[in-house]
Every structure is written in structure tokens, then in C-alpha cells.
Write a structure and sequence with these properties.
The longest helix has 26 residues. The chain folds into 2 domains: 210 residues, Spore Coat Polysaccharide Biosynthesis Protein SpsA, Chain A (Alpha-Beta Complex); 107 residues, no CATH class. The chain starts with 6 loop residues before the first strand and ends with a helix. Strands 1, 2, 3, 4, 5, 6, 7, 8, 9 and 10 form a 10-stranded mixed beta sheet that branches. By secondary structure, the chain is an alpha/beta fold. Strand 6 and strand 7 form a beta hairpin. Helices cover 47% and strands 18% of the residues. Helix 11 packs antiparallel against helix 12.
């Protein structure tokens, strides 16, 4: 491997003309210079195609691919096919990164012999113009794990390693040698993919530095409230994980059951919080919690608080009302807190 290996940064682009320049400028301004920035225009109907082309004229490291709209996963797959780097990183086009983002992740990979390196992120709430950062460990600390061990964190969406494909750098061979592609046509596509490169990695590292800025906006694919499309997490994802486990001849039954139960509880609460009123969806999720309660109760991979919530959902008739009331009060308190903080700035 070269002293400064080339990194391919793949940016899918679709209807983000208000955000795209900030994203690309943050990549052009990286301290680490051996980059290949691949902007995949996924048939965007706004000014994005022209913005991409203009940037390509300004910086020779930028490659633009225009294609018919196929969705986020299809755009990422296009980027993977075109990439020439030894490493790859995925950046969403409404997000941006710190100038040291690539440099810090590459150095961590080389220092720890990690196939994947993940950093922490800062959430930017567009509507409230508010930033939120939650450190998981001491600032600047690095945690190194076996890839299969970290895969469990990703499946359960807990611990230091997360299910998002962004905020990470991967050795490109993990994708290309193991035929890993994003699932076209699905939302929550990261959940169907991210655990797989972790499985094929010998070592992975987590760096507690908030180098990625993630924009939360209500009009994004997954940024809004609850809707029935989120049920793909319960209907399709467990089967996908079981198929992968069978192919690799590994037993992930406990982890998949834990994921299924935990997500059922999370989506049930989300549905109540957002006032989603559909009896069929309500019954589907609640019945799933009831059916799986034995596994929920005895699965230590599920946090104790979640297991208690499952019991309350099943046994407490007024659970929905109590949840709605507490959520309303919490959101009001959050609004007043943000208003107060912004008033002091």
C-alpha cells in the first residue's frame, strides 16, 4: 500500500441544490489531498447536474457521473464501480465533513491495521438550526475490535459502531472482493449492507472525534416521521440477515432476534410519538411485540429499559396515552431549551 493511499469519496446527488456546494467544498478542502471525489448525479431535476459539472472543471480530482434516477443505493453502486481508490468513503450530499475527516480516518487505519474506521458525528437539525453531539467515549480515544464482534454492534445499532454507511472509511477490497452492493429500491438501505463489510473485516477501529456533520431534515428519505415504509426493517431485514448468516455458515439467531424485537419496540413508540393513525400497522407491530415477548424478556442483547417498555406495551392499557403525553411534554421542553440556547448566542 502506498504511503498516502488514494481514497474514493462517493457522493450520490439528487435534489440537494441548497446543500451540495457546502458538501463538495468540504471535500475539496480536505487536508488529505490524494482523493477521488465521485459525484453521482442520480437524474436530479434541479440545478445539481450543472453544479457538479462546474466543480469538475475547477478540481481535477472530481469525477461526475450523470445517470437516470435509480435511487440512493443505485447511485452508490455506480460510484463503487467507478472508484479507483484503495479506500472508499460515502458522504451524503446534504452533509459535510471536517477538514481533517479523511486524514484522521486514514491515519487511524494505518496505525491500527483496521479495515474500517468510523468516527463520531454531529447532528445538524435544519429546522431548528441546532447542533447536537453525543460522545460515546473519551474525546480522541480509539477503540479497536474484531470485525465480527463489531458487526453485532451494527446489527443491534448500539455501542460505538453504527448502522450508517457514512462517517466511515473502508478498504475498497472489502466491497469488491466480497461482492457487496447496496440494495436497490429499499429505504434504510444502510441496514441491509453495513453489517456485511464488518463481517469481512479482520479489525475495525472507532475514533471519538466528531468529524462528520449529518443534516437532519424532514424532507429527506428517512428524515421525516413514521410511515409504513419503515416496516421494511421488520418485514425484510431479518430475512436478509438470516440469508447472509446461512451463506457464511454462522449463527446470528440471537442477534437477529434481538434486532427484530428492539426495532419493533422502537417503531411502535415512533408511531405513537408521530401520531400515525393506522389500525392495521398498529396491530402488526404490537402483535409482533406480543409474539416475540418471550425472546424479548430473555434476550440480554436487548437493553433492560427496552424489555421493560415491551412489558408496558403489552400489559398497560393506558401506555399509548402516557407515551403521547410524555412525548408532547418532552418536545415542548426541547423547544424551549433550544430557543433559550439560541437566544444566548
Amino acid at each position: 500500500m502506498s504511503p498516502q493511499p488514494k481514497v474514493s469519496v462517493i457522493v450520490p446527488v439528487f435534489k440537494v441544490e441548497a446543500y451540495l456546494s457546502k458538501c463538495v467544498e468540504s471535500l475539496i478542502g480536505q487536508v488529505y489531498s490524494n482523493l477521488e471525489i465521485i459525484l453521482v448525479d442520480d437524474g436530479s431535476p434541479d440545478a445539481c447536474p450543472g453544479i457538479c459539472d462546474d466543480y469538475a472543471k475547477r478540481d481535477s480530482r472530481i469525477k461526475v457521473i450523470h445517470q437516470k434516477n435509480g435511487g440512493l443505493s443505485d447511485a452508490r453502486n455506480t460510484g463503487i464501480r467507478a472508484a479507483k481508490g484503495e479506500y472508499v468513503s460515502f458522504v451524503d450530499s446534504d452533509d459535510w465533513v471536517d477538514p481533517d475527516y479523511i486524514d484522521s480516518l486514514i491515519k487511524t487505519s494505518l496505525d491500527t491495521s483496521a479495515d474500517i474506521v468510523e468516527c463520531n458525528h454531529i447532528k445538524y437539525y435544519k429546522t431548528d438550526d441546532f447542533f447536537d453531539y453525543s460522545p460515546k467515549i473519551e474525546r480522541g480515544e480509539i477503540v479497536v475490535k474484531d470485525g465480527s464482534e463489531a458487526m453485532v454492534d451494527v446489527i443491534l445499532d448500539k455501542g460505538t459502531y453504527t448502522v450508517s454507511s457514512w462517517g466511515k472509511i473502508y478498504k475498497m477490497d472489502i466491497f469488491k472482493q466480497n461482492n457487496i452492493w447496496f440494495s436497490v429500491g429499499k429505504i434504510h438501505e444502510d441496514r441491509f449492507v453495513t453489517y456485511k463489510p464488518f463481517f469481512f473485516s479482520r479489525r475495525v477501529a472507532y475514533l471519538e472525534s466528531p468529524l462528520y456533520f449529518y443534516t437532519k431534515r424532514k424532507d429527506s428519505i428517512t428524515g421525516g416521521g413514521f410511515d409504513e415504509h419503515r416496516l421494511v426493517i421488520l418485514r425484510d431485514l431479518p430475512a436478509d440477515m438470516r440469508e447472509f448468516a446461512d451463506q457464511q455458515k454462522i449463527n446470528l439467531s440471537r442477534e437477529i432476534d434481538g434486532h427484530d424485537a428492539d426495532q419493533s419496540i422502537r417503531l411502535f413508540n415512533m408511531m405513537i410519538d408521530d401520531g400515525f393513525d393506522d389500525e392495521q400497522t398498529y396491530s402488526y407491530i404490537k402483535d409482533k411485540i406480543i409474539e416475540n415477548y418471550h425472546n424479548i424478556k430473555n434476550n440480554q442483547l436487548i437493553p433492560a429499559r427496552r424489555r421493560l417498555v415491551a412489558l408496558l406495551i403489552i400489559k398497560l392499557p393506558l401506555y399509548d396515552h402516557i407515551r403521547r403525553t410524555s412525548t408532547s411534554l418532552r418536545r415542548r421542553a426541547d423547544y424551549l431549551f433550544i430557543k433559550n440556547i439560541k437566544g444566548r448566542l
